[in-house]
Amino acid sequence: MVVIKPFNVEQWMDTYETQCKYNIAETCCDSVSLTDLVSLAGNVETGAENPITSVLAKKRLDYGHIRGSPSLRTNIAKLYESSTLPVSQSQVLITPGAIAANFLVFYTLVHPCDHIICIHPTYQQLYTVPESLGAKVDLWKLKENDNWSADVTELQKLIKDNTKMIILNNPNNPTGATLPFSVLEGVKSLAEKNNITVLCDEVYAPVFHSSKAPPPPSFMSLGYKNTIVTGSLSKAYSLAGIRIGWIASHNEEIVEIIAAARDYNTISVSQLDDAVAAYALSPGVRENLVERNIKLCEANLEVLDAFVNKYAKSVGYVKPVSGTTAFVKFTRSDGEVVDDVRLCEMVMADAGVLFVPGGHCFGTYEGEFRGYVRIGYACGTAALKQGLEKVGEWIESGGIDKCS
Ligand SMILES: Cc1ncc(COP(=O)(O)O)c(C=O)c1O
């Protein structure tokens, strides 16, 4: 039997997401319907047949293309290609979401006795699965006092002779921070020198919305051969319901090894999902979808920021610049940080608002991230406003001081 720690964030969402009135814990940009998707494309005449539903209706529902349709894989390859670095569909594999993409990468490439370095805090899958496969995992800690950035000299000290993989998540869940170009370059040069594979989970790219600095490139664009990037339609593209993700790598040998393992657990993804994903990432649709989501995040972050400023005595954060989440710290009036699980349970019971407890879902030892809460602010603006208003009323009624 596999020995694996519970995936706390997923279990928390499973327990509470159907009970809450205001879900401001979700990490996807507000989801869209097929009708919304088509109207975002903006080129369909009123009354005309919906181009995507008519394609879906006529599809013959066999397995389809084993690795994913050529049109979908080509559209994904285009996300990473530049004039100096071509990327072709043969370097892309389609998976049921990024969660399956990450799992497959680990299942295929991580062995007992390997040493793995993973950025932290991050989505728990990225360090718990390698650990469950018998690898020794060291965490490369992001620094809250440096806008949740990372120090490459610390990474250098973590590298051992048997370091197999460095795992990044850019933009980051839960902090909403971005690893800048200089850090990515530093990781690349250490990985190259020590022959280490880099896995960069980029599910929140390209939702770069609030930094004055230019957005960092995908790790794929740095041109390091042993790079694997994972992504999906769930977060930045508002389409979690189609369960489409991917693995891309410059190293076709890596792609083939992963594809051979994938044969045992995927065959192919749903053809209907594949067709919707190919449409969403097609020219003329993708740009509009991304623009909608960047605007949504900008507007909603203003709402969140106003809330944090209003309650600054008890609520604080490093303002996120990318992605869809903020890591917010709650403090009692006596200066003690609160118990984050208790806080989330109380906010749920008293205000009907769903938050994610940061210590419980992202901490790796007793007390780490105590008092932190992950807020997912890329939901509909009205829901965010209403939810935060309810939390504000709860704070004003002395709620925080009741959390011990
Ligand atoms: C960093 C990260 N990677 C991967 C996933 C999985 O996303 P999906 O399987 O919906 O693509 C999530 C979901 O929250 C995430 O935050």
TrEMBL record:
Protein name per UniProt: Aminotransferase class I/classII large domain-containing protein
Record InterPro entries: Aminotransferase_I/II_large (IPR004839), NHTrfase_class1_PyrdxlP-BS (IPR004838), PyrdxlP-dep_Trfase (IPR015424), PyrdxlP-dep_Trfase_major (IPR015421), PyrdxlP-dep_Trfase_small (IPR015422)
Pfam families hit by this protein: Aminotran_1_2
Presence of keyword DNA-binding: no
Family, similarity comment: Belongs to the class-I pyridoxal-phosphate-dependent aminotransferase family.
Domain Aminotransferase class I/classII large positions: 57-383
SUPFAM superfamilies: PLP-dependent transferases
Organism: Dactylellina haptotyla (strain CBS 200.50)
CDD domains: AAT_like
Keywords from the UniProt entry: Pyridoxal phosphate
Keyword Cytoplasm: no
GO molecular function terms attached to this record: catalytic activity; pyridoxal phosphate binding
